[in-house]
Specification:
Blueprint lengths: L2 H13 L6 H6 L8 E6 H5 L5 H9 L4 E5 L4 H14 L2 E5 L8 E6 L14 H6 L7
Helix pairs in contact: 4-5
């Protein structure tokens, strides 16, 4: 066995499997941008009235998974859990304490879909990303 492969296996044993695009996965709650069909900021998820677009997307894509940011309270995202259950979609509460993602909800597909527009760019979105560019 070559020395490089021994080192590779030791590193995997210590740190786990190498992950592709770790920064992107932290941002999109464990998913990749290419799999996302909708992403809402924490502020958007916490608003009183849920977005109708979420319900429409879930009804049209039953194989989708709703990823919810565990930093938010259950009361903030409970309406989206109900939507996912009603549409027959699965959901996960993601707790990446080191991630600090600006997103509160990401709807992902099992494989790449490369949707061009995955954001609802309202005043809450603008507030979350006023200092940086997304896309």
């Amino acid at each position: 066995m070559k020395e490089e492969s021994v080192d590779f296996y030791l590193q995997q044993g210590i740190f786990g499997h190498a992950e592709t695009k770790p920064d992107e996965r932290r941002m999109f709650l464990g998913s990749l941008r290419e799999r996302a069909i909708l992403a809402l900021t924490k502020g958007q998820v916490s608003r009183n009235k849920p977005y109708d677009e979420v319900e429409q997307i879930l009804k049209a894509n039953r194989q989708a998974t709703v990823l919810l940011n565990g930093e938010l309270s259950y009361a903030s995202y409970s309406q989206y859990v109900k939507m996912a259950n009603a549409a027959g979609c699965s959901f996960k509460v993601v707790n990446h304490h080191e991630a600090n993602s600006p997103f509160g909800l990401v709807i992902e597909m099992p494989s790449a879909v490369n949707e061009e527009r995955i954001y609802i760019k309202d005043e809450l979105f603008q507030k979350a990303f006023s200092h940086e560019s997304v896309e």
